[in-house]
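Dear support,

I submitted the protein below through the web form. The confirmation email said the job was done, but the results page showed an empty box. After a refresh the structure appeared. I'm attaching both so you can tell me whether what I see now is the final result or a partial one.
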Amino acid sequence: MVDIFNKWKEKITQYVDLRFQLFKLEFIDRTSNVLSYILFTFAMLLFAMAILIFLGIGLGEWLCEVLNTRTGGFFATAGIYIILLLLMFALRKRLIRAFSGIFIRVLTENGEDDHDDDEKA
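What the results page shows now:
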């Protein structure tokens, strides 16, 4: 009778240990997914900022030529940026929902979906 309890105890201990290892691996997987997504987003934002800066300088120089005034060209460029900022402010709820949806999708992705995509390809 004691032998049966020892076997059950061993099985339960193995089960708990395996569940804990599975939890750790899932945590590592989800954390690495979130961190890689954050790093990717940060890199894309850096590139977008560089592009916006150079586009702004180019647009300012072009508007300087069109308006024949350096100050007017760069103020017009600043006005375009202000309009874009106001547009983003007006659409902030939609943008926040979109980004939160992406973040939730990244957090709740199942690893099984990745394997299904590999098999279809």
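Response: this is the final, complete result; the empty box was a page-load delay. The chain has a mean pLDDT of 87.
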